[in-house]
Sequence to fold (74 residues):
Amino acid sequence: MGSFNYFLQSLRYLNITTAINVFLKKVVATGGIPFELKETPEQKATRDLVQTISKLPHKEAKSTKDIEDWLNED
Fold:
């Protein structure tokens, strides 16, 4: 928060309370967050991987015998 406060002080007229109020008024005026939210390439890759893994066929192991059988499959 220190660097953000420094940035606001460098504007000379905007303190954190004013900045939050400006942001909230803009949220109300635009009906949402007033800037685009993007995921990083790493976040997209992780999301894609999780989606792909969730589509793989799988079998639920209900006992240690099920796990042993699965490990011993050809």
About this structure: The chain has a mean pLDDT of 87.
